[in-house]
Amino acid sequence: MNGLFERATQLGEYIIENKATVRATAKKFRISKSTVHKDVAERLKQIDPQLYGEVKQILDTNKKERHIRGGMATRRKYKQDG
Fold first, then answer.
1. Which pLDDT value is given to residue 78?
2. How far apart are CA 69 and CA 57, in angstroms?
3. Hey, what's the torsion of the CAs at 27, 37, 18, 7, to 10 degrees?
4. 21 and 33 in contact (C-beta within 8 Å)?
């Protein structure tokens, strides 16, 4: 069980340092997005509420901005084809 809490802390620190999305964090650590989410939303909240709060702020910001990133990706995709 200790390893899971250690991983949750590592994920949280990575998200904060890089302002990373759940998807980018999952890719970096080679785990699923749902594992990242479970680690930071449940385990991190139990073991380090302060770190959890910082991570939650970043993830909330990413969630608010994701439609913008998606639109930019679509624009790049069609700009390359033209």
1. 86
2. 18
3. -80
4. no
Number of domain units in the chain: 1
Residue span of the structural domain in which 40 resides = 2-81
φ/ψ of 21, rounded to 5, equals -80, 165
Distance CA 62, CA 10 (A): 19
**For residues 43-67, b (16+ Cβ closer than 10 Å) or e, as one string?**
bbbeebeebbeebbebbeebeeeee
Taking only the tens place, the pLDDT of each residue in 33-73 is: 999 999 999 999 999 999 999 999 999 998 888 777 777 77
Beta strands in the chain (DSSP E): none
